[in-house]
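Quarterly update from the structural biology core.
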Amino acid sequence: MNCKYDFKGQYGIVTGAASGIGKAIASLLARAGAGLALADRDKTGLEAICAELTGAAATEPLAILADVSGRKTSIEWSLRRWPVLIGSIFW
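Predicted structure, tokenized:
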């Protein structure tokens, strides 16, 4: 599948990356050439999506095993470290 977006040279963190919307967004960003840090509290699912996206993303995805349900803390932590933040953290 061709991707109409170009995120080469960009990096992002996706929360909830092991399933659902987070997984779909991570896949789209990987196909668009972004480097990724993927966060989820589901270790098995996180390992699976990282393995699936290795080779598709600009670099090997960084797996972050974390529960980011503490909304304020998660947003502050993420914005200090990453220029792009996408995920179910805001929903």
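The chain has one domain: 11-90.
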